[in-house]
Structures are given as C-alpha cells and as structure tokens.
Specification:
With about 375 residues, the protein is an alpha/beta fold. It contains 15 helices and 13 strands. It folds into 2 domains: about 190 residues, Glycogen Phosphorylase B (Rossmann fold), CATH 3.40.50; about 180 residues, Glycogen Phosphorylase B (Rossmann fold). The longest helix is centred in the last third of the chain and has 18 residues. It is elongated and about 65 Å long.
Length: about 375
C-alpha cells in the first residue's frame, strides 16, 4: 500500500517527530511511503530520508496561501498514485484536501490533528485561519480525522468540526528508545558543572509563548528561594544564550547562577536522565510527547493541566493550573522535598504508566488498521 504523507514542515515539533517514528515503523512493515513538506528543508528532513523515504519540499513561504503549492501537490499525487493521503497539521490538511479533490484519482484522505489550544493568544493568525478552513472542509465526506488527544477532539468538535468521522488515536512510545541511563545523565551534569547534591528541575520545550518560559522562571525563583539545592536545565530550539529575551527573563528572576540555557539536545534521553523532575509550564498541549518521554525516563512530572496532560501523568506527578507561577512554584517545592525513595517510586510508576497505556506497537497497529479501512472504503 502506498501512503503519501503531507506535512506542513519538518522542524522538531511533536507531530513531526511522530511522523518520523511512524514512517520508520511503517517502512519496516512493508508500506511504501513518500513525504511532501510544504516548507523548505527542516532539521528532520534527513531523518525522513534515513527511513528510506523520498522527501519532497515545495519550499512555500510560512503563513501564506500559495496556489502554486496546490498545483505542485496535485502533480505529486498524480505521479505517486497513493492509496491514502495522510495530512499532518492544519496547513497540510488544507493543501492536501484541496489537492486531493483536484487530482483525477481520488485517494483516501486522513487528517492528523495534533493541536488542542485554539485561543487567539496562543496561535498565529495563519494557524487560526488554517484551523478555521479545516473546520469548514471537515464536513466533506472524504475527510477522516485522527486526533492525538481526546481533549483535542472535544475542543475541535465544540468549535464546529464535523464529529462524524473523527477518532482518537493516542500517541505511542517505545520504551527501548527512552529509558533512564544514570551514566549518561551524570555526563550531562558534569558538562554543565552540576554537583551530585543538586536537585535538577528540567524543561524541554522550544522557545514559544505557548510553552510559557516566563511562568516557569517565576515559579523557579519562588522554589529556589526556599530550597537552594535547586538547579534548572532548559533545553529546546531557541533556548540558549543567543536568545536575549530569555536571558533577560532569567536575570530578572535572579536565576543567572542556577539556570542553564542548553539549546537543542542531540540526545534527549541523556538530557532527561540528568533531571530529577520534568516541568512543563505550557499553556496549551494536545498530547505531550515530552511528558511521555520524560515519564519513560522515570521522571516524576510537574505539568500544567492542559490537553490530556492530567490523564497522562495520573498519580505519578503533579498537575497545576496553567499560567500560575505560584501553584507551579509550590509544586516544585513539594517535589524537591520528597525523599529519594519516594522520588524513585514515582519515577518507576511513571515509566510503567506509559508502557501500559501508550505503547508504540499499539499506536502503529491502530494507524495500520486505519489505512487498510480507508483503502477499503470503510472507516474505524
């Protein structure tokens, strides 16, 4: 079976990383696949090619509707003749839907929605415009939707998306890829000169308003005032000393000596292994890959109550309201006060929770079932 994946871009976001993982497993299962990215080359383009897939970049400009992109995508559909077109994220869903309807051979169409927060304050005008267009297009009988989070399905259907052909397929994770390695964690700590007696609160998120680094740093200041053992490691695109706005936030909160801005990690499992706790201050998530990966690395998580985060974490960590530095700081202080035995017990339970509920094998098999059902003119 031929699958054509259409993705907005191949930067290191959650949906893009899931595409890499899924395409790798599908290739192992014998599926023919090709990837079309609307944007120019991104950090994950090489990984897609490494999975043995042809990767085509249309080179469109971000945030602009370009009918030449539709024409180019129609040509790719005609040349490849896929059984299923799997579109990832709003802009790709719009382009894939219009192009599929313009192509002579009508492949089955599947949207992957990986977003839950549709508030004006947390999205660009382009994203909101594409999301609105998807809402209108969703009523076409050719559109089938998978939501990565139940909260995402509810949020979109409450805003007018068609509810007839939308299903929830949670993300899946491989325990053999994400696990706690004390030696690698020790090396990361040594790299940043962090003594063994320090408690590391880690954050992994690109620099973006929706990730709310400001609230994290305000909470970190309050927690640090009551427990001097705390150190804060922040990883992610744009999270480094070249980001003057972020450096200014660190200094304003008096955290210059206890906060390290690490940038993108080349070995994220090693970075998780250097943490004692994972903190997510996000104002909007659907189904957080970072939380699930951190839990697999035996990290108790302190997370905001957005998307499906509370369901994912369960009783293995702390859930606080978004945008509340006081509550986030309180949870940090409480977590730091746990005994090592209690911390390890929570971390062990966190890993087991992900393995039990969100295994990668189940995630892949559900998508394989979806592709076969669509190709046969049926749906889940």
């Amino acid at each position: 079976m031929r699958i054509l994946h259409v993705v907005t871009g191949l930067n290191t976001g959650g949906a893009e990383l899931l595409l890499c993982d899924l395409s790798e497993r599908l290739a192992m299962a014998g599926f023919e696949q090709r990837v079309v990215s609307l944007l120019p080359e991104g950090p994950l383009s090489g990984r897609i090619r490494g999975n043995g897939l042809r990767c085509i970049h249309l080179g469109l400009r971000r945030g602009r509707l370009d009918f030449s992109g539709v024409k180019a995508l129609v040509s790719e559909i005609r040349a490849y003749e896929p059984a299923v077109i799997h579109a990832w994220m709003y802009h790709a869903c719009v382009y894939a839907t219009v192009s599929r309807r313009a192509a002579p051979r009508k492949a089955a169409l599947l949207w992957g929605i990986h977003h839950a927060n549709l508030h004006f304050s947390s999205n660009t005008p382009s994203t909101l415009l594409a999301a609105t267009a998807c809402g209108l297009l969703s009523y076409g009988s050719d559109v089938h939707i998978t939501y990565c989070a139940e909260s995402s399905r509810i949020a979109h259907e409450s805003r007018g998306y068609c509810g007839k052909r939308g299903v929830f397929i949670p993300n899946g994770y491989a325990g053999e890829k994400f696990f706690r390695c004390r030696e690698l964690g020790r090396r990361v700590r040594e790299r940043f000169n962090i003594p063994d007696n320090k408690i590391v609160m880690g954050m992994v998120a690109r620099y973006d308003p929706i990730k709310d680094h400001a609230t994290f740093l305000q909470a970190a200041r309050a927690a640090k005032e009551s427990d001097d053992r705390l150190v804060f490691l922040l990883f992610g695109d744009g999270v480094d000393r070249s980001n003057s706005a972020l450096v200014r936030l660190v200094e304003q909160n008096g955290l210059g000596s206890s906060t390290v801005l690490c940038g993108r990690s080349d070995d994220i499992a090693a970075s998780y292994s250097a943490f004692d706790f994972l903190v997510s201050s996000s104002r909007g998530e659907a189904f957080s890959n970072v939380i699930c990966e951190g839990m697999l690395c035996e990290l108790p998580c302190i997370a905001t109550n957005v998307g499906d985060s509370a369901i994912i974490v369960g009783d293995t960590g702390y859930i606080v309201p978004p945008g509340s530095p006081d509550e986030l700081g309180r949870a940090m202080r409480e977590a730091a006060g746990l005994s090592e035995t209690a911390r390890v017990r929570l971390g062990t339970a966190a890993r087991e929770r992900i393995i039990t509920n969100y295994a990668e094998d189940r995630f892949v098999s559900r998508y394989i079932d979806a592709y076969h059902a669509l190709a046969a003119g049926q749906w889940l």
